[in-house]
Amino acid sequence: MARLEIAGSIRLEGEIEVSGAKNSILPILAASLLTPEPCCLLEVPRLADVRTMQEVLEFLGARVGQAGRNLWLDAREAVPREVPPGLMRRLRASNLVMGPLLGRFREVRVAYPGGCAIGSRPMDLHLKGFVALGAEIREDHGFIEARAGRLRGADVHLDFPSVGATENIMMAAVLAEGTTVIRNAAKEPEIVDLQNFLNRIGARIKGAGSDVIRVTGVKSLTGAEYQVIPDRIEAGTHLVAAAITRGRVVVRNVIPEHLEALVAKLREAGVRVEPLDSALLVEASGRLRGVDCKTLPYPGFPTDMQPQMMALLTTAEGTSVITESIFESRFKHVDELRRMGAQIKVEGRVAVVYGVPRLSGALVEATDLRAAAALVLAGLVAENTTVLEGVEHLDRGYEDLDRKYRALGAKIVREELPQVAGGVRV
């Protein structure tokens, strides 16, 4: 466990590099279970969630080796072992092993996954896809079991463009007989990245990035070397960090097209954002303007940027309205921002942010990954010092965020805390 002490009112300046995408590397790690041949993933971000997924793969019998920032994966001896609840609950994306295990072994049994408590993320769409492919599903005592004598291609229409369900069904269909068509599929760039990796190891998939994906089953897969795309949410967080501190930062290793919805809102608020070669220059000065935001599936404004955007708008001029249409419990950071002097009113899925001239440092606690990032950003602009607890949430999805911001001039100190036993630090 750790906490961060953040000295505020410091303008960020310089250049910052974005790491590989967390939401790409996790499904691609799971997809390595589909092939008995070794795969190498390059420039893998050092994240707590990546380490947890490695543990899941190793529990299933895969061999995972590390050489610098590269991971070697060998699932030749993997088996569809029952993944225990303790391991599954540490990571929501652990459910992504279901598609590969069902596809390769025709059976899987796992506990319900965990992850950030930001709202309901049911498995029904995943299971609906597995059933369409020919699996029988059984749920009991907190476990999900899927079995199939054979998998056959099918038409699957998702009631909602769920990223996880789209990925799981894609992976289950890779080794099925015939063609699977996923309609109303999620369009996120991470879906395209997963398609590209799967095709690299011998799959036949087309359409990722659109709402219709076609998977033509193949008999076997090979190994490959692959590097994931940059993390668009990390990049977006850096853009907001520069804007909230009225700084000037070049954010490198980005794909600007993945950030269009966020960049549009930043410009509307008065932030200068200019594209460079695989980079974005962001600069802000004076008081920004309030804007309204509504989270939507990609290419709409990302729910994973909603808390960070709210932090920015707490000191913007005027009133901003934020509508959270994806997760019903994603305003848990509001109370912590209020501790810092923010004026925010919440009605259901709508938050009204009344901009104040300044925030004040306070002791705050993160309850989930993106809330943690938002509180770091608020601490950067607040007067005096902010102490952030719950940093383990931040480390799940951001690689060395405190170190990266120190390189831009921020004054952030990480303090490692004693372990907790029985609710008391020892």
Helices, by number, come to 14
The end-to-end span amounts to 12 Å
Largest sheet: 4 strands, mixed
Question: Uncertain regions: pLDDT < 50 for 5+ in a row?
Answer: 115-121
What order do the strands of the largest sheet run in, or round the barrel if closed? 21-22-1-23
- The percentage of residues in β strands lies in 25-35%
Task: Describe, in plain words, how this protein is organized in 3D.
- The protein has helices at 22-31, 48-59, 85-88, 98-105, 124-132, 163-173, 189-200, 232-244, 260-268, 306-313, 334-339, 369-381, 391-397, 401-406, and strands at 2-7, 13-17, 39-42, 63-67, 70-74, 107-111, 136-140, 143-147, 155-157, 179-183, 204-206, 212-216, 225-227, 248-252, 272-276, 279-283, 293-294, 319-323, 343-347, 350-354, 363-365, 385-389, 411-416, 420-421, 424-425.
- The protein is globular and about 65 Å long.
- Residues 115-121 have low confidence and may be disordered.
- The relative contact order is 0.15.
- A hairpin with a 2-residue loop joins β4 (63-67) and β5.
- α6 runs parallel beside α7 and α10 runs parallel beside α12.
- Strands 21-22-1-23 form a 4-stranded mixed beta sheet. Strands 2-14-16-15 form a 4-stranded mixed beta sheet, with helices on one face.
- The longest helix is centred in the middle third of the chain and has 13 residues, at 232-244.
- It contains 14 helices and 25 strands.
- With 426 residues, it is of the alpha+beta class.
